[in-house]
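User: quick one, fold this
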Amino acid sequence: MKTTTKLVVLLLTASFIFSCSSDDSNEPEGQLPMVFNVDPLLYKQYDIDISPQFSNVQVYAWAVFTVQPTASQYTLTYTCETAPHLSFQITWQNGEPIPDPGAPPPNWIPGYELGIINGQYHIVILGSGCQSGIGGSCTVNGETPNLLESNLRDIQGTVEVRIDFE
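Assistant:
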């Protein structure tokens, strides 16, 4: 009987320890943040239309990524060690417009609303040919797109996106 009593006490103690260590608050645990890098030149894979009045403006880098409906906050960091003046970080809440310098001009992209295109993709403008230090011009002519893309690859800018959830 003595061994049985010790075993019962041991089991009760173990069950008490495990029951105390669990979270009984009935509060939902938040989803861990998503952090990933975006290739700033992969925007060409997306079917994104630009309004005709802006079609002559060369955007050399867009960060495009899928909308996360349950996200609470987005943070995008564009880091360019070889051209630090191009680096920036922006943060916005889900459902709010993307702040400058990442926001496209109004009416620039059909279906664009609050940083989202047609309810599918976030799009952040990382830079255009008008910005100094990258080369090229604001208008597309001849080799301008290829020159801008080549220069962007040369400066090796990286885009990190962090999506926080409630």
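User: anything notable?
Assistant: Residues 34-165 form one domain.
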